[in-house]
């Protein structure tokens, strides 16, 4: 089973690249972040045409997450009840979407950026991460053998070697001790970074800013992760970052991160039509769900 995560920084702008990536990389499940499209304008048909089901959560032209699967898509849920909102009044943003794909609970997560350490968004980020940790820990407490993977843009570089120059980031978000402690809490709750053993640093990144020629100068950050529960982590056989997807015209500023597991699963056909499911008490449409 091949699982990937990718912050696409606008799905409609990168749609052709995403479809080509799915086919070229032979991906079973893809977690997308920063889709920047509301549910009404989500391009379902392009995915179903190539054999994938879709679950999505998008409220506006900001944020947005989705799951694309060719091995099943069940028990879809948007976030967890305890997650905080942001703003006045506090608004729940489209930042978390989970579903079961061939027996694996896959979460697509777009962690708040934080903006600046003195910004309310930074406090929101830490609170959001704390509830993610509690929710993820509860899942393992309920079933220690559960196969769970937390995929996405965490907007945290957990160690100094996860950025091209730690001095450059002095006083900035993504590298502060509270953010790194929040990431470490997820690991301590039982979720392993299953990419790092296959791609030791330094110099291994998933994000390069559009400005200042960061990509050709190899000045990046590693902020996109797949954190797996013990039962799933034991099955991971390989991992890679598809750096080629950061190249060329129309690229996202993030590259896809991919893992392979030893599990063998069938590729299921996508039926026509749509089904309506209950998600957190609200009605949502999941195309191709049966």
Question: In words, what does this structure look like?
Answer:
By secondary structure, the protein is of the alpha+beta class. The chain has a single domain, classed as Endonuclease/exonuclease/phosphatase (Deoxyribonuclease I, Chain A, 4-Layer Sandwich). Helices cover 20% and strands 26% of the residues. The chain has 5 helices and 14 strands. The chain has helices at residues 11-25, 44-48, 120-142, 177-188, 230-233; strands spanning 2-7, 29-33, 53-57, 65-69, 74-77, 96-101, 104-110, 148-153, 192-193, 224-228, 236-241, 257-261, 274-279, 282-287. The strands form 3 sheets. It has a 6-stranded mixed sheet. Strand 7, helix 3 and strand 8 form a beta-alpha-beta unit. Residues 273-290 have low confidence and may be disordered.
Task: Output the keywords.
290 residues, alpha+beta, Deoxyribonuclease I, Chain A, 6-stranded mixed beta sheet, disordered C terminus
Summarize the structure.
The chain has 290 residues and is an alpha+beta fold. The chain is built from five helices and 14 strands.
